[in-house]
Specification:
mainly alpha, Multidrug-efflux Transporter Regulator, Chain: A, Domain 2, two-stranded antiparallel ribbon, 10 helices, elongated
Amino acid sequence: MIPQGRPVMTEAEMAEAAGMALTTWRRREAPALRQRIQPVNPEDRLKLYDRAQVTAYMAGKPIPSRPTGEEPHPDDLLSTPEAAAALGVTASTVRGYTTEGYLTGTEIAGTRWYTRREIEARAAAGDQRHGPRTATERRTAEVAQWLADAAAGTRPPVSADDVMSHYGLGERAARQTLAQARKHAGS
């Protein structure tokens, strides 16, 4: 987690600030820094460090403690695994939500981060967070009900053309929906 209002730095930015090539900085300076300062994202390949801590360390001053996140702030930034844990899903699902546009997040040094506010809103959305899959499931259940009504004689038989015209689907999608509805209805 990146606490609200606490910018971060990459090792490349630290090397640049020290006026060294990254490889030289990693060989000379990084081992000592890594012993004193923990990255905010230990699970990621590209490590990010709290800028206030790095600045104090590089100036030879006492290193301030990083906020613990005990009192969550809506603008805290959560990593993908942290967002997944908060939503009760896998990290790949969070990445899928981002691809589909259900989460936006922000990119910092090539890593996607999500505000606590955005994750809490997504969690509060309930089943809506599943996006297109929910619409497909609803459509299949509705067509299954049509099939049940047709079997009971309360409606005419259901065809792929009916599904196409009602939902605006192509022929293949309509046939797939009808096949799934038949499985769902047990026909």
